[in-house]
Task: structure prediction
Amino acid sequence: MTKIILDDVLRNKFQDLSSPFELWDESGRFIGLFHPAVDPSRPKALESPISPAELERRSKEKGIGKVYTTAEVLAHLEKL
Result:
């Protein structure tokens, strides 16, 4: 894997970003997608973007977001 060392100017542009972002050059060519490393000293960075209320709502939808036990998955696979 290629390793790129950022100078202070470029590093300062990236330091406050906490979510993935796209890199483009001046001509409009897409370079790639960058995923910043998670800093465990910043608990906010580890929080889910989905609220607990939304997770609860999704868990009640039929077939969407339902959690299955290993036994349930194996029983389903045996029926196939």
The two ends are 42 Å apart (CA to CA). The first helix runs from residue 8 to 14.
